[in-house]
Amino acid sequence: MGKTLDRFLREAEVLEATSLARSTLWREVKAERFPPPVPITAGRVGWRASEVAHWQQNPTKWKPQGAA
Predict the structure, then answer these.
(1) Whole-prediction pTM
(2) CB 60, CB 28: distance < 8 Å
(3) How far apart (Å, rounded) are the C-alpha atoms in residues 56 and 63?
(4) pLDDT band of 2, cuts 50, 70, 90
(5) CB atoms within 10 A of CB 45
């Protein structure tokens, strides 16, 4: 059957779920140590809940999908 839809998390939800500070979140995204946000509409981004959950399983060893 069809694929399950992924939920998009807002920045505040990501910060609450991860306990990261806002500046740390964006520093980790820039360094490619945290999943990047996905553009949803002009001026609005969100994080895929599945990617955040994957990062939470092992934050120090997380790699972007497709990375070796």
Answers:
(1) 0.85
(2) no
(3) 12
(4) low
(5) 13
Residue 68: which residues within 8 A CB-CB, separation 6 or more? Answer: none
CA angle 3, 5, 11 (to 5 degrees): 150
Residue with tokens 């996905």: 38
* Single-letter amino acid code for the residue at 1: M
Contact 64, 35 (CB under 8 A): yes
Q: Which two tokens stand for residue 46?
A: 């969100």
Element (H, E) at 41: strand 38-41
Residue 21 half-sphere exposure toward CB, CA atoms < 13 A: 3
